[in-house]
Design a protein that fits this description.
With 823 residues, the protein is of the alpha/beta class. The protein contains 28 helices and 24 strands. Helix 23 links the parallel strand 20 and strand 21. Strands 3-2-4-5-6 form a five-stranded parallel sheet, with helices on both faces. It has a five-stranded mixed sheet with strand order 7-8-9-11-10. Among the domains are: 167 residues, Alpha-Beta Complex (inorganic pyrophosphatase (n-terminal core)), CATH 3.90.1640; 127 residues, Diaminopimelate Epimerase, Chain A, domain 1, CATH 3.10.310.30; 98 residues, Arc Repressor Mutant, subunit A (Orthogonal Bundle). The longest helix has 33 residues.
């Protein structure tokens, strides 16, 4: 049975008032209590350090020449290549960090070497090649006359490949940030921050940031040559930094802050607000993912997943460099749409593989293992890292997922004897709970074909015949690790601040934004809300840019508690509404701003049933419902405000019970005060619906489903049937969350002829649904109060019991923190 997640809630420690005032200097219009508490909890307690952390203009970045002799040798070799007009190849990688690093070198070195003539780039195919240099790719570059390779985000462990290039007369400059091998490759220079002390401000640079430092050094070495300002590369640096999930400390944080400032210019320039050089491809991607570019989440949930999706789905991601750097708007439009479709396909594949992994895990006894290793023939290699990350977070165990059905999973015949012995499995590993999985994998290198990565993420290929021995060896090492115990392998839900629904909104959002950009070492603030409940829960499938459904869903809801009389909107990615529990809950959420819908909202991260005093007394609360349907209560206005008054006559028990529960959970006394409805002929309701559709189509305005229901006096089920009928009589309806937009198709469609047989057939279900709802409303206008009280009490107790069972069995696993994917 799956171990329930451990909830770790930070104690509410209030920082000194002088520290709060120091933080408030950077946002004088805000209280800054929450921001100060977070900074204090994260050990940034020295007021003198706040300036460099909160304001990038006051941070002093490190010189690129702090890489020492390696950077000096790289500069000397690049100058030599420029003097002798040698052909140079940039060797990148196929993830977002590698793609942006390639684009930075393409544009930065392109100021010194003629693109396409002296300078070209090579990116391996994710599905047929692996990370890092390959002899196959080096052969291609040799045939093109390259004399120098400059790697980015890769190369540190490619000893054999660099030696092979050397034999062909090609020298190598490695710029990378991955783990260093014991033996130094025979490269001209290796610019890698892992040679620096861990406390150095450059130590946590990602591949794109290292590439930027190389360009910065060349700009300082030959300052008279570049025509483009160095700062024009910062937006690319921010995309790669944040997408790669490195620790945003020191220069990493500074570069991400400056890059996000620049990223904001893309959509502003497109709308004509300012005039600057910008990237049409980046601007179009931001539009497609409905983001403004001013938040780190616009990268981690928007740009990053889309760039990564191309190689995951198509293998070859070379065109992404063109997408990021080209000024050809028409070409960028085409490439951006292709990228968007790849991301939609990635979402579907990721969900399909996750479901298959869950089915396999259901057959295992996880209490006997600290490591998850699964293999399947047809799993697409491109999404295995994403799924492994989800599984590791959910089950609290390092996870390795492997596939044998992808290209390149069979060794050459000369390597071993039989075909079965030559079969390779390729895949990805993800870690959790501070376990250095890279080191665990590296210790078994003799059993692997290839591997590489970080402490928390690795890629590997292994002979299928070696998998049982490999898994057993890693499992054994995990069991021996000092300090490991059973709780180490349970999923963990962390909460930074305890807030109420009333705290959510613009002011809190702006306080938390002071800490951005967030990432490893400075995670997105996790907000705990206790004793809350969900209202208006619903879900839908996501659609791609062509309107096709993607097998990936999200649930939308309103979050309520007793602190306010207004709910707060939220979403839960990858989950169905049936997974939302009834009754009082504790939740952990992230506060966000939806730039597309212009609203603040929360993203649900974890949920559990709340243990409340007085839950067993719910039946007594149900008996406190009053009946004002036929009488005036004669109460003063102040007294009336203490009641939850239901004035709309329901059309079903579900509708009535939902409204009653909401009021009762807020601790209010409830009164039903609706009058018997005056039935409107169903045909008239249809005419009103058509009239609204025509008006909205003609004016280009939109309306929410709630507005339509209130205007027509109908319930949600009836409205959905009405929308289907409109679609059959000549209206196109575009839905985005609860908002609807209408447009008329061919004017000759039969809706213009009210008595046409096609119209009668199309609207008959709607007419019947309206008639049935009106009949039900007549019943509920007269149903005895004792019947309502009994149904409320019985319904709640049954729901509470069922949700307790459901959460114990399923929801402990639904507490992962959204991976860079999401969205």
């Amino acid at each position: 049975m799956l171990e329930p997640p451990k909830w770790h809630v930070q104690p509410n420690v209030q920082p000194p008032e002088e520290f709060v005032q120091a933080v408030q200097c950077y946002a004088p219009e805000l209280p800054c209590q929450f921001a100060a508490q977070l900074l204090w909890q994260r050990n940034l307690q020295d007021s003198s350090l706040l300036a460099g952390f909160l304001d990038p203009q006051q941070y002093q970045p490190a010189s690129p020449f702090e890489f020492g002799s390696e950077m000096a040798q790289a500069m000397e070799r690049l100058q030599q290549a420029r003097t002798h007009r040698e052909k140079i190849a940039i060797w990148g990688d196929f993830d977002a960090d590698g793609i942006t690093a390639t684009a930075v070198l393409w544009e930065g070195l392109g100021q010194f070497f003629e693109q396409q003539q002296q300078l070209l780039y090579y990116i391996p195919n994710r599905l047929t090649e692996s990370h890092g240099l390959s002899c196959q790719g080096i052969d291609v570059l040799a045939q093109q006359g390259c004399r120098l390779i400059v790697t980015c985000d890769t190369g540190s462990t490619n000893l054999l490949e660099i030696e092979y290039a050397q034999q062909l007369g090609i020298e190598t400059i490695v710029t990378d940030h991955h783990t260093l091998p014991l033996e130094r490759p025979p490269a001209i220079a290796i610019v890698n921050p892992r040679y620096l002390p861990i406390t150095h401000p450059l130590f946590h640079l990602s591949g794109v940031a290292v590439a930027y430092k190389v360009v910065e050094a060349l700009y300082e070495t030959l300052p008279q040559i570049p025509q483009q300002p160095l700062e024009h590369l910062l937006d690319l640096v921010a995309i790669g930094l944040i997408a790669d999930l490195v620790e945003l400390k020191g220069d990493c944080r500074y570069l991400a802050q400056r890059g996000i400032e620049r990223l904001q210019l893309h959509l502003r320039q497109r709308s004509g607000a300012v005039t600057v050089a910008f990237r049409p491809g980046v601007a179009r991607l931001l539009e497609l993912c409905k983001r403004s570019g001013d938040r780190p989440t616009d990268i981690s949930f928007g740009l990053g997943p889309r760039i990564n999706a191309v190689s995951r789905i198509q293998g070859d991601a070379s065109f992404c460099v063109e997408l990021l750097s080209s000024q050809d708007r028409q070409r960028c439009e085409q490439l951006a749409l292709e990228t968007e479709l790849a991301n939609a396909r990635r979402k579907s594949l990721q969900r399909e593989v996750l479901q298959q992994v869950e089915e396999k895990l259901a057959l295992l006894d996880l209490s006997t293992t600290r490591l998850i290793v699964l293999m399947e023939t047809q799993w697409p290699v491109g999404v295995l890292g994403l799924v492994a990350g989800q599984v590791a977070q959910k089950y609290g165990r390092p996870t390795i997922l492997l596939s044998t059905g992808s290209p390149g999973t069979e060794l050459r015949p000369s390597t071993t004897a039989g075909k079965e012995d030559r079969l390779l499995a390729r895949g990805s590993a993800r870690s959790v709970n501070q376990i250095d999985l890279y080191q665990l994998v590296k210790d078994q290198a003799h059993l692997l074909h290839r591997f590489g990565g970080h402490p928390f993420a690795a890629g590997l290929s292994v002979l299928v015949a070696n998998i049982p021995l490999f898994a057993a060896a890693v499992e054994q090492r995990l069991q021996r690790l000092e300090g490991m115990n059973e709780t180490t392998f349970a999923a963990v839900v962390k909460a930074d601040l305890t807030v109420t629904v009333a705290d959510l909104g613009r002011e809190l959002f702006r306080e938390l934004k002071l800490l951005e950009p967030c990432g490893m070492g400075n995670p997105v603030p996790q907000l705990l809300i206790c004793n809350c409940w969900f209202v208006n829960v619903w879900n839908r499938n996501i659609k791609d840019s062509r309107g096709r459904k993607v097998q990936y869903i999200k649930t939308e809801f309103e979050l309520w508690d007793k602190s306010t009389k207004q709910g707060f909107p939220g979403i839960w990615w990858g989950h169905y509404r049936e997974e939302i529990p009834s009754g009082r809950c504790d939740v952990v959420v992230e506060l966000d701003f939806n730039a597309y819908e212009k609203r603040y909202e929360v993203r649900l991260q974890a949920v559990r049933l709340a243990v409340l005093e007085g839950q067993s007394d719910f039946g007594k609360l149900a008996l406190d419902i009053l009946d004002w349907r036929d009488e005036d209560p004669g109460l003063a206005t102040a007294e009336m405000e203490s009641f939850g008054v239901l004035r709309h006559c329901p059309g079903s028990w579900d509708e009535l019970l939902s409204e009653l529960r909401q009021a009762l959970l807020m601790g209010q006394r409830v009164a039903i005060a609706y009058s018997p409805p005056t039935p409107i002929p169903p045909a008239t309701v249809w005419q009103q619906l058509v009239g609204l559709a025509k008006y909205l189509s003609r004016t280009g305005r939109s309306a929410t489903q709630l507005q339509l229901r209130q205007k027509l006096g109908i319930g949600d089920r009836v409205l959905q049937i009405g929308l289907q009928s409109l679609g059959q009589v000549g209206f196109a309806i575009a839905a985005e969350a609860e908002t609807l937009q209408f447009s008329r198709l061919d004017a000759t469609q039969p809706w213009a002829r009210g008595n046409a047989p096609e119209v009668v057939a199309a609207i008959s279900p709607f007419i019947a649904a309206v008639r049935e709802e009106q009949f039900r409303q007549q019943y509920f206008s007269q149903v005895p109060l004792a019947t309502i009280q009994h149904r409320v009490s019985q319904s709640y107790q049954f729901s509470l019991e069922m949700q307790s069972i459901k959460l114990a069995e399923h929801l402990p696993g639904q507490t992962f923190s959204n991976p860079k994917s999401p969205i």
